């Protein structure tokens, strides 16, 4: 499974890279919405709302334009926004603007395996 993380934040990038590796997923990081995507498709897109000052509606629109440029459209791809729980309005605004779901940063980092199973039901589970 391939995950795109949109965030210039090195702490988030590092933490999520480790969590993705543990889940046998590939994580690609896009530090700016002006950067080029390196893959043809993604199964999950994580958008760090705290890392960008733009209004969530503007951010989501930019992400949609970026994803529309993909040669392989994954109809099952989920787009999930995350940020601090105290920014609930921004999280709600991102959902209103079109992301599939929003979660707090703590929920994302603390429940990553369970969230992956919810967002990517075809993700193989580890035995043991």
Describe the structure.
The chain has 128 residues and is of the alpha/beta class. The protein has one domain (2-116): 3-Layer(aba) Sandwich (Rossmann fold), CATH 3.40.50. It contains 5 helices and 5 strands. Strands 2-1-3-4-5 form a 5-stranded parallel beta sheet, sandwiched between helices. Strand 3 (44-48), helix 2 and strand 4 (78-83) form a beta-alpha-beta unit. Helix 2 packs across helix 3. The protein is globular. The two termini are 20 Å apart. The model has no long low-confidence stretch (mean pLDDT 92).
Element order: H for helix, E for strand: EHEEHEHEHH
Shape: globular
* Estimated helix fraction: 25-40%
**How are the strands ordered across the major sheet?**
2-1-3-4-5
How much is the average pLDDT? Answer: 92
Q: How many helices in DSSP terms?
A: 5
- Beta fraction: 15-25%
Number of domains: 1
CATH fold-level topology: Rossmann fold
CATH architecture field: 3-Layer(aba) Sandwich
Name the CATH superfamily assignment.
Response regulator
- The top level CATH class name: Alpha Beta
Structural class of the helix and strand makeup? alpha/beta
Main beta sheet: 5 strands, parallel
Q: Please tell me how large the radius of gyration is.
A: 14 Å
Q: Which spans have pLDDT < 50 for at least 5 consecutive residues?
A: none
Please give a quick description of this structure.
The protein is of the alpha/beta class and 128 residues long. It is built from five helices and five strands.
